[in-house]
Amino acid sequence: MLTRRTFFGTSLSPALLLGKKTAAERPNVLFIAADDMNNALGCYGHPLVQSPNLDRLAASGLRFDRAYCQYPLCGPSRASLLTGLRPDSTHIFGNNISVRDKLPDVVTLPQLFRHSGWRSVRAGKMYHMDVPGSVGTNKWDDPPSWDVSISPPGQEQRTAGAGRNITQDKSPARWDAIAFSGDGKDQADDRATGIAIETMNQHRDGSWFLGLGYLRPHLPHVAPGRFFDLYPLDAIQPVVNPRGDLDDIPLASEIAINTRARDMGMNERDKKEAIRAYYASVSYMDWQVGRVLAELDRLNLRRKTIVLWGDHGWHLGEHHRWHKRSLFEESMRAPLLISAPGQKGNGKATRSLVEFVDIFPTLAALAGLTPPSNLEGQSLVPLLRNPARPWKSAAFSAVTAPGGIMGRCAVTARYRYIRWSGPHPDEELYDRSSDQREYTNLARDPKQARPLAALRAVLDAGWQAARAKV
Fold first, then answer.
1. Among residues 43, 69, 74, 409, which one is catalytic?
2. Yes or no: is domain 27-392 CATH 1.10.10.10?
C-alpha cells in the first residue's frame, strides 16, 4: 500500500506531479458536499423541488444519473470518497471515527492537492461531523488535508422560528422542521458560504482546493420561511407503498434501518410536513450554492472545475423508510455533478454506473496530478469526454447493523442484488427494468434462478472485475 510517508518521501518533482499543467493552467477545485441529499432536484427531473442554481451547474457540466456511494451513512461514505478507498479498506463502518484512526498514513484527496501546490481550505462538513451535536467543532476532521480548516457554528434545532418535532411522541428519532425569518446569518451553512466567498477573493490569482460542506438538507430541517412557502402541503403527495411491501424484505434490512422504519408513526399530514421541510432545506442549500457561483462569475473563475456531490441518498417514505442506512436505490444513489472546463460531455448526462470512489482519481487526472497507486476507483475523465461510452458493469455498496449483520449490494444496469450475512442471512433481487421502485424481491422466486446466480457471481467477483475497459 502506498502510504503518505512513502508517497511524499519519493523524489517526484513538482513538474512530474503536475504532469503537463503549468501553474497558470492548474484548475481550482470547488468541491461542494451536501449532507443527506438525494436526487430530488430539478436537474434530475423532480417535478416539484426548486433547485435553479444546481440546475444551472448541471447544465454547465456532466450530470451522473447513476452515481452510488460505497456506504449509505455519512462517516463511512465520506471516508471512502476522500481516501479513494472502499469501506473494506478504510475499515470505517460507522460514524464518529477519524480517518487517521484507521489509516494513519493515508494520502487523502485534498492532501494530494495541498502537497502539490494548491491551497487547501475546508469550510463546513467534509469528513464526518455529528449533526447537530458537533456542529461548530473540528471533531473527526483530518488536519493533514487542509491549510485552513473551519467548522462554523450554527443554531440548528435551537433556531427561533415556526415549527415542531414532527415525530414527537411517535418515534424516538426526531424530525425537526423549523421555518425562520431572514436569510439565516446564524446558520452554519450561511457562514460556510461566507468563508468560501472570502477564500476565493483572497486567492483569486492562485490555485486552490476549496472543500465547501453544507449541512442541509440533513436534519434538523432548518430553512428560511420563504423556502417552506415554495411547497404548499396540498402539492405534496407522499409515497404510496403497495400493500404487503414489507413482506418480502429481509429482517436484516429492517434491523439496519432501525428507528426510521414503518413511517416513524407519522400520519398523512405529518408525512407531508416532513417532505416539505426536506424540500425547503434542499432549496436553501441550493440558494447558498447560488451565492458562491455568483461570486465565481464576478471573479471570472467559472472556467475552473466544480464538483457537487451528496454523501448518500435519503428515504422519504419509500418502503415506509425515512432515513439512509439501506441498500435500496433511494439510499445508495446520490447526486454527482462535475463541471470541468473544455470537456465534450458538458451540458449532457450519463446513465453509466459510477461510484464515489471514482471522484478522487478523476480530480487528480483533471489537475494533472499523480494519485496514490492504491486507489480503488477509476477516473471518470473518459466519461467527461464521451458520456455515452461503455463503462463499469456494476457498482457496489455495503452497510452494517448491530449484532454482526452485514449487507452487500451489487447494482448493474438492470438489477439490484443484496446479500445479508450474519444472524439473519438472506438475499434480495430486484429487476429495475420492470420494477424501478424495487417492490418485488425476486430472490424468492424459483423462476429467477438464472439471474440470481448471475448476480451472485457479480457480487463475488467484486469491483475489480466490474471496472471499465479504457
1. 74
2. no
